Amino acid sequence: MRAFIAIDLPQEIKDYLAKAQAKLKSSNADVKWVNPQNIHLTLKFLGEIDEKQLNQITQILEDIAGNKTQFYIHLTSFGAFPNIKSARVIWAGIDKGDSEVKQIAEDLEKESEKIGIPKEERPFSSHITIGRTRSSKNRNKLSQALENLTSESGGFSAEFTAVKITLFQSTLTPKGPIYETLKEAHLKTI
Fold first, then answer.
1. 3, 39, 76, 90: which sits with the fewest CB atoms below 10 Å from its CB?
2. Which residues are annotated as catalytic?
3. Assessment of whether the complete model's pTM goes beyond 0.90
4. What does each C-alpha distance from 30 to 25, 57, 138 come to in angstroms?
5. Antiparallel, parallel or unpaired: β 164-171 and 158-162
6. 149-164 confidence digits (pLDDT tens)
7. What CATH class is the domain 2-186?
8. Are 101 and 43 in contact (CB under 8 A)?
């Protein structure tokens, strides 16, 4: 099965990001927007895993979550990889909670490597993907829309408490991926 580990977002944050997507869609850029119900903060993409690895990952999640305390995540800006002018991945960034997210991702990376899951080559960056460009059509308009979105919101503010880490199964379909929760591991209360 294809799987990943993430911090799921509360509905009000998904709704907020859907409104941001709607503003960016006005650029008419060639973007595959993430279904708002599927928006999440990825901690570790696992790829194809087997039943044995599933059981091991479930234990890893429990161990890591049991040693971490709930924390606030504050969304601060919009941007793109590799940059706004050459956007391929469009994202919402975080500031508060960044170090906690990075520590959990690092722990997941280290522990999952021990059970045969390849280490991610790129350095981890805390972000929430909201879209991916498919071509350069209207890329300049998209860049302008991203800049406008960040400036008009005055560095928007949305915050939530990360209370759990979730293991998702991802089934790819022609209409987009379908995510199913396999395991939730709750962080310690403050």
1. 76
2. 40, 127
3. yes
4. 9, 36, 7
5. unpaired
6. 877 655 456 899 999 9
7. alpha beta
8. yes
